[in-house]
Amino acid sequence: xxxxxFRATTKHYxxxxxxxxxxxxxxxxxxxxxxxxxxxWNDPALMPIEIWEQIMDSLKVPNAERFKMFIE
Length: 72
Known about the structure:
By secondary structure, the chain is mainly alpha-helical. The chain has one domain. It is built from 5 helices and no strands. Helix 1 packs antiparallel against helix 5. The longest helix is centred in the N-terminal third of the chain and has 14 residues, at 3-16.
């Protein structure tokens, strides 16, 4: 997964959906620890696909944008 593209896309959709902080974004996932979420944010390659899907679903990221993260 392209980590820079993941963070850029996520930040863009956080702004569009009025999600102000990563902590509020974490609340939409099953990731219980903010430390673990921060680790995933810094290195998305470690992130389980379930957490990634929950983030993308909560931000309503279109499928085309999602797939770009893995292609580029």
